Amino acid sequence: MEEKMSEEVRETKESRNFIEEIIDKDIADGRTTEVCTRFPPEPNGYLHIGHAKSILLNYGLAKKYHGKFNLRFDDTNPTKEKSEFVEAIKQDVKWLGADYGDRCFFASNYFEQMYEAAVKLIRKGKAFVCDLSAEQIREYRGTLTEPGKESPYRNRSVEENLELFENMKNGMYADGEKVLRAKIDMASSNMNMRDPVIYRIAHIAHENTGDRWCIYPMYDFAHPIEDAIEGVSHSICTLEFEDHRPLYDWVVRELEYPHPPRQIEFAKMYLENIVTGKRYIKKLVENGVVDGWDDPRLVSISGLRRRGFTPQSIQMFVELSGVSKANSCSDYAMLEYCLREDLKLKKPRVMAVLDPVRLVIDNYPEGQTEELEVENNLENPELGKRLVPFGRELYINRDDFMEVPVKGYRRLYPGNEVRLMHAYFVTCTGVEKDENGQIRAVHCTYDPATRGGNAPDGRKVRGTIHWVNAATALPCEVRLFENLVDEEKGVYDKETGELNLNPHSLTILKNCYVEPALKDAKAPDSFQFVRTGFFCVDSRLSTPDHLVFNRSVPLKSSFRLPTVGKA
């Protein structure tokens, strides 16, 4: 295995990021013989785009080095965790393509070993039971410029600490009455090393272990133990854990694990003017601002999936964003770019009318319908062709007609000839209005010689518009999205800290029409609606009798692919 990994390292050295360079050195030095990484979510909410980066990074490292990848739920805080979140996380990880096989673990599986580890620290004189309240512990902790004070309970005997800790486990004390703390250094320049709490009392049932435990380990104590038990070689985490690394190393060193894991930090995934924090997303869900964790306006993984994003598009986005130690912000437009790049050759291009007005071809035979053969995607002939019905009455988009055209307008107006996409040249002859002056129908004539959209006499038209046949078109609902927050004001209100919400983040169009070819469409099917964007069938709202489409991305944006160097 080691020889195989070394060859892989030599062959692709030039493409390595800083994490891979560290792993390369660990392999060369003999510190690592098998790479094992993990994704360790806390099941207290749904995953978002930032988690996608961590999942794909950890899984990618394991795959590149022919190692192992674990999914592990850090379920050490039963007050916030739900089985609903566990199942959602599993679905998201699998959807992204990170194959953890049968290597799905839970921190709660190791509670007995964690308890024994705490007892070992007590026996070594490295942990003590403390009676200070949470507020007193904060006061004793000191500041960034002043050392902390030792707890008056710090020098209890090993025997007394063992007895008190066992009593804690046996439920003899109330929540907050006592804690177990590591005995390290109250004068340390790193606040995390000033005798941190490693166990607290919580009389609450756990999703996995029920009422067996009333004491629970703190994350900073549990996490390195979990990594060590599972044989994780490299514990890849985000930058906010950099100051916690000395404590991580202290735990695995004092517990004398023969192959201690190595923690490496990288920069988080941030999106400019986008709500990414789990705490804020949770608030939006609970306040009913969005219709759930999978609302397509969110950058939760389930929200992105419902909006029509693909695993491949998110993988591309993560790769373009890079891996580095420096925090930076990516543009949401780059995420949209990645989706367009993934879909443009894969999806059929169909016609959909989102704001319909009737178009009547007066010289077309009444009652006649013909079928036009159309390429599903001109750039990808492998997607084949379909038949599109055409008749005397059609629907076109309302903004494709203008009774009094502005300068440069090339679409339909009285006296102007345009091309109906895939069909015929038509010339506008007039309009029909209701009693309120609203346009009810546009009238035109067609040239039968231009079937297929080309004139045998070589004449050209400047405008091409799309349409659907009124007699066979499928009614549907379409949902258009904008950013959840007001980008001009910024994400957060500077005075209140509340989100600056955009009241126009969701637009629902009820009276839309699509080609009959989409009659059997169901989630996660997606299509390019010509001239409009990429759309997918909504996984929650759409039914066979009521099609609902979400716009994934518009066809174009101002984003241009940046020059990406090595991280």
Automatic annotation (TrEMBL):
Substrates-to-products reaction catalysed: tRNA(Gln) + L-glutamine + ATP = L-glutaminyl-tRNA(Gln) + AMP + diphosphate
One of the GO biological process terms: glutaminyl-tRNA aminoacylation
Residue intervals of the Glutamyl/glutaminyl-tRNA synthetase class Ib catalytic domain: 34-344
Top-level class of the enzyme under EC nomenclature: ligase
Residues in coiled coil: none
Domain Glutamyl/glutaminyl-tRNA synthetase class Ib anti-codon binding per the UniProt entry, residue ranges: 348-447
Domain tRNA synthetases class I (E and Q) anti-codon binding: 464-538
Pfam families on file: tRNA-synt_1c, tRNA-synt_1c_C, tRNA-synt_1c_C2
Cellular component per GO, a single term: cytosol
EC number(s) per entry: 6.1.1.18
Domain of life, source organism: Bacteria
Keywords on record: Aminoacyl-tRNA synthetase, ATP-binding, Cytoplasm, Ligase, Nucleotide-binding, Protein biosynthesis
InterPro entries linked: aa-tRNA-synth_I_CS, Gln-tRNA-synth, Gln/Glu-tRNA_Ligase, Glu/Gln-tRNA-synth, Glu/Gln-tRNA-synth_Ib_cat-dom, Glu/Gln-tRNA-synth_Ib_codon-bd, Rbsml_bL25/Gln-tRNA_synth_N, Ribosomal_bL25/Gln-tRNA_synth
A Gene Ontology molecular function term of the record: ATP binding
NCBIfam families cross-referenced by the UniProt entry: glnS, PRK14703.1
Family of this protein: Belongs to the class-I aminoacyl-tRNA synthetase family.
Protein name listed in UniProt: Glutamine--tRNA ligase
Organism: Porcincola intestinalis
